[in-house]
Design brief:
Elements (H helix, E strand, L loop, with lengths): L2 H9 L6 H16 L6 H14 L6 H17 L7 H14 L6 H20 L3 H17 L4 H17 L10 H10 L23 H20 L6 H14 L7 H4 L7
Length: 265
């Protein structure tokens, strides 16, 4: 189905048939696979809204799966923050039904989906939800005695996310508690606890002040970035985002400023 026809159906009043839903959905997936990502996230949102109006999207696992693909579409389109709402919903839904899954292959797939959500939350600097997703994935695998190496990888990620969170000291586990996790996941070095293996971030990124304006800031900044995409470099993108934050009264240090010895490409 051509995109114009799909949009006509999604914007129209008529009810979608099962075949039309399948064609629109498969078309979106094909676009993502071929990296023709522009507008795919918005189309998937329209599809979700249409299915909800038709009462054809009630199963929690189906909703979470569609939310995850919406998040993926916006990440591939280099506008990940637009998927924040759907990442939050997918995380909430997966946590609500994950413990009911008994098949090991399905459990591993759910853990991978949680880790993908963790990566998405990291991409828009939401370290608390990133920690939540990685931690749940890690525990889901360990509680079911599934691959230790995969669980250890997620443990490494949630510990990094935890270190990036600007929380009250009392909310953080002690170094001894973190080391105990690593002893259980003995296949990994203890590099995260020693402060290596990740970029330094401006602590303001974990603040409510920063998170409150983040989506609006990125929308404003990417009007400029997208207009000059061909000549865009990390330095130019960072400057545009920094200026956008300043317009909202937030003084943010870019990754280049926080990591002067690293070259961004």
């Amino acid at each position: 189905m051509e995109r114009e026809e799909a949009l006509r159906l999604l914007n129209g009043q008529e009810k979608l048939t099962a075949e039309q839903v399948k064609e629109i959905f498969q078309g979106c997936l094909m676009s993502l696979k071929s990296y023709q990502t522009k507008g795919v996230g918005e189309m998937l949102i329209k599809l979700k809204e249409k299915l909800a109006l038709q009462n054809n999207l009630q199963d929690e696992q189906d909703v979470a799966a569609l939310d995850l693909i919406i998040v993926r579409a916006f990440r591939q389109d280099m506008h990940p923050w637009r998927g924040r709402k759907y990442a939050n919903e997918a995380l909430r839904l997966i946590k609500s039904y994950a413990d009911e899954i008994k098949d090991n292959k399905q459990i591993e797939e759910v853990a991978k989906n949680l880790a993908e959500l963790g990566d998405s939350f990291m991409s828009f600097m939401d370290f608390r939800h990133s920690y939540d997703a990685y931690y749940f994935a890690d525990n889901l695998l360990r509680d079911n005695s599934l691959p230790l190496k995969m669980a250890a990888n997620y443990a490494n990620k949630w510990i990094i996310a935890l270190k990036l969170m600007n929380t009250q000291e009392g909310e953080l586990p002690t170094k001894e508690e973190l080391e105990a996790v690593y002893k259980e996941h003995s296949s990994l070095p203890i590099s995260a606890l020693e402060g290596r293996g990740y970029l330094k971030h401006d602590p303001i990124e974990a603040s409510e002040e920063f998170q409150k304006v983040y989506d609006e800031v990125m929308e404003d900044a990417y009007i400029i970035i997208d207009a000059f995409k061909g000549a865009s470099t990390p330095s130019n993108r960072f400057r545009a985002i920094k200026q956008s934050f300043l317009n909202y009264g937030v003084e943010w240090k870019t990754p280049e400023e926080m990591n002067p010895g690293i070259m961004f490409k």
